[in-house]
Write a structure and sequence with these properties.
With 136 residues, the protein is of the alpha+beta class. The protein is built from 1 helix and 4 strands; from the N terminus they run ββββα. Helix content is 47%, strand content 12%. A hairpin with a 6-residue loop joins β1 and β2. The longest helix is centred in the last third of the chain and has 64 residues.
Length: 136
């Protein structure tokens, strides 16, 4: 994308040109609408899907837009599925963490056992050198 004023190459998220400071026109986000018929006057109206209340531009009546049971069920299933996926991921993280802790403890115990073994061997060697040399 290029600046309309100076022709400089612009960053995709730029609001102003970094060369000349010209304001970059922003694209409007499309409003999601659906066509409904007014139950009072029969007029056809475009209603914003993000709102739960519709107002007829012809007669001014207000109505609550309710979603169907199937939409509600699907929304609940989707939410439950996301929770299950989150719980699975959390469980995997906990299991991996526990395995890491167990492995760390095993290595620590192994190192401690090796150290004790070498101390015993060293003490035996010293005892052998001290007392064994008397009999040679």
């Amino acid at each position: 994308m290029k600046c309309e004023k100076c022709g400089a190459e612009l960053f995709s998220s730029a609001k102003f040109c970094h060369v000349c400071g010209h304001k970059i026109p922003q694209k409007e986000k499309p409003v999601l609408t659906k066509r409904l018929e007014c139950q009072h006057c029969g007029g056809i109206m475009d209603v914003d899907e993000t709102r739960n209340v519709k107002v007829c531009p012809y007669c001014g009546s207000k109505e609550l837009v309710e979603e169907s049971d199937s939409v509600t069920k699907q929304r609940i299933k989707s939410h439950a599925w996301k929770e299950v996926q989150h719980d699975k991921e959390e469980t995997k993280r906990v299991i991996v963490k526990e395995q890491e802790v167990t492995e760390r403890e095993r290595k620590k115990n192994e190192t401690r056992t090796d150290a004790i073994m070498w101390i015993i061997v060293g003490v035996m060697f010293i005892v052998f050198v001290i007392f064994g040399s008397q009999y040679i």
